[in-house]
Amino acid sequence: MGYLLHPTIPTTAPDWVLADIGAGNACWTLDVAREVPPSWKLHGFDISSSQYPATQYVPKNVSLGILDAFDEIPADLVAKFDVVHIRAFAAVVKGGDPGPLAKNLVKMLKPGGYLQWDEFDTTTFAAHVPSDEVSKSSTDAIIQVWHGFAKKLDIQLGWLHILAESFPRFSLTLLDYVRLEPTDFLRKAATDNWMMALEEVGFIIVARGGEAGAQISSADYTLLLDQAMYETQRGVSIWIDMQVVLGRK
Best label site of 11, 36, 78, 157, fewest CB within 10 Å? Predict the structure, then answer.
């Protein structure tokens, strides 16, 4: 996208407070801390602190805490933030309804605050070939395993196509909508990332067996993964569109 915070957000504003929801290892939070004034306060939140860096590596204006964004928002976090950022919740929203999550995010915003939602549109999860001479059958098959896994867990993806259209329903004014479609210079890097993700999904499938929604044994999944890896070495790429939606309360 070329930015961490959308250019509409005035990063020169003094003394702002930002929340990063689903912070993971806090890499985004820490990166943004380098781009905004040191007077900003940045709070990273996740459902677990297991991926957070050691506190010795975190700047003084950054704090990392635990928050389940689907639960009731604590009173001390209501209307506290000038900016709320959320990224990659496609595989977390159940039942195809991001409304309860979105309403919690809006609740955290001050009046006039900005919500930036960066999301993978996993309905576009697909394999692509550089030429008709290259097969992608195994890569297609392993992506279908993922879709079966998601369906079993009630991860419905239709809301991703209309996320921007939904912002007014969440009491937000839509300011911008950007979609990053397949880009050749990023194809290889994106493919390597998604292959690692598909490998991790395999471990979950093995751990949960039939409960995971994919009727495939661990041995067959490993073989399919190896075959898909071979196809990517011949030029097959995997892509999921990224979208950035910016709204204001």
Answer: 78
pLDDT digits (tens, 9 = 90+) for 33-63: 999 999 999 999 999 999 999 999 999 999 9
Q: What is the DSSP string of 200-215?
A: HHHHHHHHHGGGGS--
- The residue whose two tokens read 């977390």 is 92
Task: Name 7's Cβ contacts closer than 8 Å, sequence gap at least 6.
Answer: none
Q: Which amino acid is at 207?
A: A
E strand segments, the chain:
17-21, 41-46, 62-66, 81-87, 109-128, 173-180, 237-248
- Residue 139: count of CB within 10 angstroms of its CB: 28
In the structure encoding, which two tokens stand for residue 114, read together?
């900005």
Q: CA 181, CA 143: separation in Å to the nearest integer? A: 18
Q: Which residue has the tokens 């399919």?
A: 224
- Cβ pair 64, 49 in contact under 8 A: yes
Residue 164 contacts residue 112 (beta carbons within 8 Å): no
- What φ, ψ does residue 122 adopt, rounded to 5°? -75, -5
